[in-house]
């Protein structure tokens, strides 16, 4: 069996952060957050890493990452653009926002033929997440069984504004039964709430959420392609619409095509949504280095 691949989504615009956080340095030696994910993936048994990037940062990303770990793991880059996989009839010349995580997934279908994990470039997931993903992708995954690493909602918020999270519903056996993408979650008034327009919904702090940390059999690409053109048709006049991985996952569950196992590997997480999050991330990484979780220098 092939060793699993790590797919890193690094094409986001970082509009709330105010820059390209995918290539910004946070570690003691200016390591990017995604370098910790690659380091953890290598020591967990992954054999290839695929970066989804925008054309504007491609050369800089190659210059930063290939010399560091290109001799330790196979590295490939894929472009996600506003034209990628988009038939000419559906292109939106005035659009500036990327099409979202499931579109990024689709962009990688020609370079991934083996079981693979999907993560965000700007999220720190912890080595335990990669170890449990590697074990699942090496032994359990099938076209009818995928996985996600679950994180408790209270541990994945920002102190500086709202965040988007895939709020999960699960069966007693630990399988995902549904997910709703909540795009405006924050802690306030002694609780955690999603507020959008006149809607205000309280969510349990222990509720598992998706941090876009998935494990898939490559069969997932077929369902993603099936949903892609209908999504474009439905959103021809919406320049901010996004095609999310939870949409694909929900369809797999609802159509009884596959099950999604929730793995309990989400022990530690931090990330950068806002520029103010930077200081917390820098301190957290220094603490992990000091504790010996990571060597003085990653590479």
From TrEMBL:
InterPro entries linked: NTP_transferase_dom (IPR005835), Nucleotide-diphossugar_trans (IPR029044)
Boundaries of every Nucleotidyl transferase domain copy: 26-166
Protein name: Nucleotidyltransferase
Pfam families: NTP_transferase (PF00483)
Species this chain originates from: Cyclobacterium jeungdonense
